[in-house]
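Quick one:
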Amino acid sequence: MAVKDILLLGDPKLYEESAPVKKTELNELLPHFNLMFETVLDFQKKYGAGRGIAAPQIGLLKRIICLNIDKPVAIINPELKNPSNEMIELWDDCMSFPNLCVKVKRHKKLTLSFYDLNWEKQTWQLEDDMAELIQHEFDHLDGILAVQRAVDNKSFRWKPSN
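Output:
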């Protein structure tokens, strides 16, 4: 299994904005998708957590998210629309700071539009944990980390490592 090192909190690349993927780049980027899926699986084995990763977390500044939920899903050039006014508050974790949780607020519902690996447009209606996950990963594409969205300065806690 080939995996990439995940950039950790403090790495300057995590704070940069990612560029959109052009259709003409898709073939050359395919190996990165596989690396991202494998990296999520490796993280799950090590930490017992992790459902998705954004390309900037492996140093690739492209608007790509890879999820390992029921099956591997590639999300290219995502757009978030129609966020609900209703918010949820939760303890968020991140592969870039694996033993730290941050209390954040996220929209309870939203619409996600993106291109899949066949460059077909997809639209999903998301709520609760999936809406939260997508907002977290989407933030990475804009150079925003959960620590920057903390509810207040007491919204941090360590979680035990496995």
